[in-house]
Amino acid sequence: MPYLACTGCGKKYPLERHLRCGDCGEPLEVRYEALTPPARIEEEPCFIARNANIFPFPDFRPELSLGEGATPLLEAVHLAEETGIAEIYLKNETVNPTWSFKDRGTSLGIQAALQFGLTRVGTVSSGNMAASLAAFAARAGLEAYVYVAGDIPEGKIAPIAIYGPRLSRGIGDYGRLYYNALALGEKRGIYFISSDNPFRVEGQKTVAYEIFDQLDYEPLDFIILPVSSGGNMAAVIKGCEEMEELGLIKKAPLVIGVQAAGCSPIARAVAEGREKVEPFPNPATIAHAIANPFPPSGNRILRKVREGRADVITVTDEEIIAAQAFLAQKEGLFVQPAGAAPVAAIRKLAAAGRLKPEHRIAAILTGSGLKDTGALAHHHLEVVSVPVDELG
Ligand SMILES: [Zn+2]
Description:
- The chain is an alpha/beta fold.
- The chain has a domain at 73-100 and 200-378: Rossmann fold (3-Layer(aba) Sandwich), CATH 3.40.50.1100.
- The protein is 34% helix and 16% strand.
- It contains 13 helices and 13 strands.
- Zinc ion is lined by residues 6, 8-9, 11, 21, 23-24, 26.
């Protein structure tokens, strides 16, 4: 039987709706007595059915899937040319049902809520997760409580509200909003599918399985992705470790998380060799999707860094904007600023010599550019006006 275990102190819990350890406060994760590999993408198109072997419940409702997962893995031809690295792959998560990677975790989080007989689900989100939760809750007929950060741009609100959740804007510290919402969830019976929800992490880990499935289990040196709360990065590391255990891959790649320099609490703790993440003062970055100043799974990532499984670095907003333009103009992919951060990191690490021509790298492009059109103001995009009869 699968069970929950604390990622901090190892304490075991039954497979119930606990989110964090009662003793040390760290996130819980699902552990399995024995795992068997998931089906291959080409064998089973449905996300839920394909991954049933690496999910913890015996019964699922696959009809609640919105077609998440099985996203394309593309070769980054021009990025490879620019950096001199022969093989760089881009996992295009922008084509998920609500245009971000979050749909994988939401899908399983909703299945968990149903297993526990709950009718209310909630999330605290800077935008992407809010839309994802609202969409999957709508399909499952569950009541959705969504708390968004007070400073998310106006244009990101309506695309969440359209799914009909109970939507609130939390004024004040986003880090505190998370903990206050958890307390409210206890009181009102709302099942929070937040970044460190153990079942959401199980859904998110599938992106690592898919990348290797699409590479026919050929080895990778690095998987590079943006990191904010730390839950998705922890999930990718977990997926890689499980594949290693299953013998699907010989050695897990090093997972490199990328933060915006203007909000980089985990990277700062790594650089200073600390065991605990401290709140980041005065966060400021155009990459709103990765601007959590006090990440709930930050300490968990620091433990993985100490185990030699992970690293966390920063890129500047200028580097992110340049990478966003490069992806659109050279690779044909329009991603939101957070989604461009891994490509900014590849360019930076290649220039610094840390990434070498022989390395094999996958970068996860987490969300669509259409989710944050405000960021377009940072680009110098030209349109000329011409009389219709004098085109030239
Ligand atoms: Zn614990």
